[in-house]
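Posted in: Structural Biology > Protein-Ligand Complexes

Title: Requesting predicted complex, glutamic acid in pocket

I'd be grateful if someone could produce the 3D structure tokens for the following input. Sequence and ligand are given below.
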Amino acid sequence: MKPKIEICLQWLLMCCCTFVHGDRTIGAIFDDGTFLMEAAFSVAVTAASEGQENPFEAKVIRTSPGDLLEAEQAMCSLLENHIFGVFGPKTKGLIDHIQSIADVLELPQILTEPVETQNRNWSAVNLYPNHIAYSQVFADIVEMKGWEEFTIIYESSELLPYLGNVLGIEDLIAGDHILINVVQLPDGDDFRNELKTIKASGSLNYILDCSLKNLPLFLEQAQQVGIMSDDHSYIIMNPDFQTIDIDPYKHGGSNITGIRLFDPTLETITTFITSLNEKVKELSEEEIEDAVGENGLTLDLALIYDAVTLYTTALNAVGITEGANVTCEDSESWEVGSSLMNYVRTVEIDGLTGLVKFDEEGFRSDFEVDILEVMAHGLEKVGSWTGEDGYTETRTFIPPVEPEGSESMKGKHFIVLTALSAPYGMLKESSKTLEGNDRYEGFGIELIDELGKMNGFNYTFDIQEDGVYGSYNAKTGRWTGMMEKIMDGRADFAITDLTITAARQKAVDFTSPFMNLGITILYKKPTKQPPDLFSFISPFSLEVWGWLAGAFVGVSALLFVLGRMAPEEWQNPYPCIEEPETLDNQFTLANSFWFTLGSVLTQGSEIAPIAVSTRTAGSVWWFFTLIMVSSYTANLAAFLTVESKFYAIKSIQDLANNPYGVTYGAKAGGATFSFFKESDNLLYQKMYEYMDSHPELQTKTNDEGLERVKSDDENYAFLMESTSIEYMAERNCDIAQVGGLLDSKGYGIAMKKNSPYRQPMSESILQLQEQGVLTRMKDKWWKEKRGGGACADDDAGSGDAQPLVLANVGGVFIVLAAGSAMAVVCAFMEMLVDVWTISHKQKVSFRDELMAELRFIFSFSGDVKPVRHRESTGSGSGGSKGSKGSKKEEEERADDVESLKEEEIEEERDPSPTPRSEHSHHTCHSRRMSNVLQIAKSRKYSRGNL
Ligand code: GLU
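-- Reply #1 --
Done. Output follows.
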């Protein structure tokens, strides 16, 4: 066939082309609005003219995109220049129109556009790969990947023919059932709704056919919607995929495959780019916006170059040197046009886009493409496709075994979601305009920075503008806020005061906690109370006062009993009388109370214990009172110096019972609110019901809660987490934590379920904890930065005096009890020894004597004790120590009485004051007097008793 055409052409040319002109003009109509096509065309024409006797001349007319009339005028004006053929235009509608004119005039039209309308009988030849072969490339890739389902996402219906074989893939893969979903992108630049629908359909594989302009936009939005994670795969059909910036998608985890028709690193390409850019500069007069970058050469530019090369090669080959002598006005055609066209279809060249040749139908179906994949290091050629061999894998890059631990994070880029919640994430205060991650600071920001350094990853912060951390919405069956974003893959990590809860743990993974806390109450500091008239009671708690009173009564009664038991305490009331008939005891019941009271009030009393037992009891009591009085005095001082405060609430019980009308709430949808909701504790349930029925008491943020607590307009308490209260109380001196913690939990970094990064991140957090870095960071952000420590002095004097409770002074009571017990033992010993001595001396039965003594002691019959065994009576009964009765002695005593009377008369005669040296004598005298009187009494008593 081809040789026949050639012979025919040679003949034709010999007949028709009898004279030779100078330049051969090739026309072009470009309507893409840039200088690039024109520049590429000119560069190609110049290159084709090199070494030619009759060089080619480029005649380009640029028209407004899509303007039919302009294009037609351009065509007519080109025809006036006797052009050898026309290139362009670019838009589908214009192509058809110009093609119809060219058809009539049989003027060759050379196209480089993805348009289906081609027929070998027409005068158009298209260098763009044929749509059937082109769609076969992707059908083969899908087959190689073994997809069982995929979604075709296309932008314009004009591109549908290029999907032909992909749509019919089921017929190609016999027996396999493949689920294909087709979605058209809307006009404009927001595809999120369609992407969300695709996501909701559960499809994980996508074939994307869209313009180069919309491709980066689409990928960016796919990332935002969360369909760009490890589970998702993409095949990009646009042949200019290699020209877009793939950096944001290198580490997203999704598999992205594309194609190219030329390798931008080839020398022919780089040389072409250089010439192209120079030409653009020349054409646009310093306007270099259209300059092509290193990898920026698009297929249409390379194709226009190849088209010019192909066509000029054909012209050179056939030797046509005179252009078409046709006009728009008459319908006469170019006699050589269709023959030339047929010849062009037989030519083969090795162009920038590989081998350019046409099949028998006149289509470019035999072309070669490279299959590319996005890797962490960039685009990598993983295979090639030819019309003959189909897809061949040439993967030279063997993906390394997925590293584990921190290695798996190295070099990766993550989206880290955070919220503007002080001090975890805050906007930096700076006079300069800050960009990117530089705009933020805080505990969470610094922690991510540390983790990034430790694990070698990069990150970009994304802010959760509404501050919603996330809770499960049973109605929609979905999570909200940050949780939703993590689950959807719209962010890789979430860090803020995000509490690890059981419910959240089911939906996402958390690292080990980096901070521990519990729920508590934020409320105004207590107000001052007016002085209390009875504040002297305050140093001891009522319980201690009760014990003190008990000890007083107990010890007094004990002294009374000990006094009766201890023989030493029964004293001769008349020291001058050697053998009294009765003995006196100072520890009467009243005296015992007086003695103990005297010591408690540190006043003392006349009573002085004599026996070991009473002295022991007395000493222990003195010790007890010493400690108690000192403690009382010390605490009283504290009570008098420290201002007493009024506490509207002191605990969660107070808040729940709400005696002073304190309203309360928590952060809506936060972990604190959930705690009350989930709790089965009746008190907390009651509080949940209260908060739930008062949505106006819930807040959007912790800061809002703080403002409401501080506000004088309402009496509001805010339930929140202790670490956040700590931060606020460092800076707001009028608020404080009230009561203890209701629970114990932690903050963690959230990430997608089963994330491989959980373990390295947790390990790093534990390391930072062990090295004390987290503590240092906490001190820095809590106590130092942004006004920390403002309330440090306030707190120093704010301690409240507390009444002493039994736990504070219980030890003294124990000492008192032990001492008293010892005193009792001593008293018994003393009594036994005395009884034994008497029974031995008086030769009476020990038992009888003991019984008599005990009977007397516990009869509590008064403070006078008759002497049972008096030696002078010589009888075996009724005496006591020192009472050796004899008649002689009786007489002596009678004499004593006489002499005492005489002394008395003497004293009456001489009323001068008794000198101090004689005091003892006088005392003895008075005693003797009273003794005399006592003798009379006791005799009566003795006789009566014995
Ligand atoms: N840390 C809480 C959360 O993760 C927010 C504050 C709160 O509920 O007290 O939801």
